[in-house]
Each structure stands twice: as structure tokens, then as C-alpha cells.
Amino acid sequence: MARSWPWQRVAQSARYSRHTLRHSPLAEISGALGDLGTLLPLMAALALQGSVSLSSTLVFSGLFNILTGIWFGLPLPVQPMKAIAAAAIADSASLRDTVAAGALVSSAVLLLAVTGLLRRLAGVVPLPIVKGIQLGAGLSLVISAGNNSLLGSLSWLHHPSVLDNRLWALAAFVGLVLTQRMAPADTASPARGTLFLPYALVVFLIGLVIAIIVSVLHMGTVSRHLPHFVVWHPHLVLPHWLDSHAWTMAIAQLPLTMLNSVVAVSALAEELFAPPFLSSLALSSSFTPTTSVTAFGCSVGAMNLVGCWFGAMPVCHGAGGLAVQYRFGARSGASVVLLGAAKLLLGLFLGETLLDLLRAFPRSLLGVLVLAAGLELASAGASLNTHLEGDGGDGSDVQGCPYTANQKRERWTVMLMTAGCLLAFKNDDVGFVAGLLCHGAYRLADKLEARRSSRNRLRRPGLGENTALLS
């Protein structure tokens, strides 16, 4: 295979993204907005309590969106590091502690990536465990959509207002259900209808209008302001490298980043953008998206080692973000390049003045977007037993033949064990270890059964110890 130089790869990715954007612009824009249900609540909560700088977060996450979209050619999300965000919100962590935690995680991931250890880890993790992590992460998002920070605190009519309640959430959910088959028509599936409704774009615009109305109505009663022109002035931030709180948040985040933001993202990208999908595109012969864990690990590492010096929110990639952006229409890096350009402009010229608008964005609509993200990621588990290739660490050679009924049942059990323990203990590490133990128990049983069968063959009549070697 001929070596592809970096500038050649960027040119190929750009051609593919331009082709996709011209073919389905609304789908790319809608897909770009699909992950806002995860981004907006966490970013707003962290910025409001001073744990991150909103303007720096918008500027740097926008730049990372643009760079990853150009390089990877995929709708790869740039989203908050959730474990760090949750801990920072719960403990009102300082700006210097929060950015230090993100930088520590990125340093570890970058070291593992460049030394090849991350690739080896991905190579030995069985596919059912990866799918279990995706399923568990997806169901975790579904559950989080109903917590008190989103849908759980809403009433049917008046709380928090008539413009943000369960009726709005119900309407958004009905719209989500009705548009299930109104996905963009992939050229890989010409039989599908071409009717497409940019659901995420519509929901975002409705939410933005509501947020503006609420902000205007409350300007006279509370200290709220509409966004206005303010040029970004970057300030150097010195992270608290040795603070125990920063290390605690980093240790909690590291396994989640490696498993969900690198390994699971790589597996999902390979599945969504497999050669059969790309082979139907006009530019498929000249472009193959990068889906290696090493590339994703280097990307995560580089992002926070730059943004941490300016108070930007710790970010990573995520399987849930990729799944929902794909679900709402994104098929190339053009989607996240557009999103990144918008975030960059907002950060440069509006910055902290957006806080009140973010606070007013309806939780009812954000909750449904989070729900959609969770359902889309969880559905990745449905393809577990359709893979006919060996999946590192499985221990069985299934190349070229379907799995047996017993193999399928065992693989589903490993996936459900991983997802179930992840949900029960709210910890990716526990789910990962439980899946490994379940998988190992099956492999041990296979070896014991093989040894027993071998002994039985040696003890068959005519093959005993006293039988003559030559008759």
C-alpha cells in the first residue's frame, strides 16, 4: 500500500467533505448540532461556577472541531470529559484544578498512544466488551436525560416556565419518533427514500428562539443580559499540577477516556464508515477515514495540552457524540468544521456574554437530544453477532463462517455483563473488568472442555494403553 503523506490525506479528506456537504448540506448541519444535548448543559454549568472559561472553551473546542474534521474526515465530536465535569460541578472545582485534571488525562493518553500501548490494549479487548461499553454508555445517557438537571425537574406546565416543561419535551420526543426513518438517504442505500427532516437543527432553532424570549422577559427582573459584542482577550492560566483534587478527577476520567473516547470510538467509526459505505461514494477510491486508536489517542492528548493554558474545558471524543451526529445526518468532517467555525466566532466575539442565553436554553429540548444520543449509541450493540471476522482476544476462529447459537449467546452475555455492571456501579472500570471476567470464564470453559474431549478420544476402545501399535 502506497504511503499517504499528511498533506495528501488532508486534501483527500477535504474533497470528500466538500462532496458530502454539496450533496446534503442540511444533513451535515443537522448532524453537527446533534451532540449539543451533551455539550451545552455541562459547558454552561462549568462556566457559570467559574470552573472553566466559556470564551476559551468555545475558541479552542471550535479550533479542535475544525482540525479534527479536516484531518479525520469524520463527524468526530469534541465533547466534555464527563467524569471531570461531573466532579468539578459537584465540588465547585477551581479553574486551575479543572484544567489540570484534563491535561493530566491527556498526557497519559498521549503517552500510551505514541508508545503503541493503546493500540495493543484495543487489540486484546474482545469485541463483546467494546460493544458492552457502548451499550452501557448509551443507556447511561438515556438515564441522565431523566435526571434533575434535565427532564426530571420539569413539571407538565409551569416549571420552570410555560416555555420549558414536559409538554415541550413530549412534543420533541414525538418529533424524534416520527423522524426515525427521515434520515439522510445514503448513496450506499439507494432504495431508501430521500425525504429528510433535519431534526436536530429544527430542535436547536426552536430552543434558541425560546432562550432569547426567556432572556428578554427576565431582563427587567433578574441580572440577565442578551449576548453582545466583546472581543476575546486570552489569559494565561497555570494549572494546579500537584493538587490532589486534580489528580482524583484525572484518575476517575482516564479509564473512561481510553475505553469510550478512544477504543469504542474507533470501533464505532470502523462500523459506521466501513468500506461498503464508502465504496458507493464518488470519492471513495481516494479517501479512507482514519479510525485507528493511536490517531484518536494522539488527538485527545493534543487537545487538552493546548487548551489547558487558557482555561478551556477538558474535552475528548466520544462514541455517543459520533453516534448521534451520524444519526442526525452527519457523514463527513464538514459537519464538525461548520460547528467549529460557529463556536470559534462565538468565542472570539461574544464569549462570556452568552452565559445567560445558555442558562435559558430549554432543558426539555436538551433532554430529548441527550435521550436520542443514548439510544443511538446503545443501538450499536445490535450488530455484535453480525461481525464474522476475528475480534482480538475472542479465542475462537470464526473467519468466513457465522457464529454458532452457543457462541452468539455467550457473546451477548459478555456484552450485557459489561453494560449491566457499568450501569449498576456507574463506573466504566467495573463494567470493563466484569466483562473481562465473564469472557475469561467462557474461554476457560472452552479449554477445559477441549482437554476433556481429548482425554475421551484417547480412552476410546481400540486406543487404550494395551492396544498394539501395529496390527
TrEMBL record:
Pfam families with a match to the protein in the record: MFS_MOT1
Superkingdom of origin: Eukaryota
InterPro entries reported for this sequence: MOT1/MOT2
Keywords: Membrane, Transmembrane, Transmembrane helix
Transmembrane regions listed in the UniProt entry: 58-78, 98-118, 125-146, 166-183, 195-217, 290-312, 332-355
This protein's record includes keyword Transmembrane helix: yes
Keyword Ion transport among UniProt keywords: no
Matches recorded under PANTHER family: MOLYBDATE TRANSPORTER 2, PTHR31970
Protein name: Sulfate transporter
Organism lineage string: Eukaryota, Fungi, Dikarya, Ascomycota, Pezizomycotina
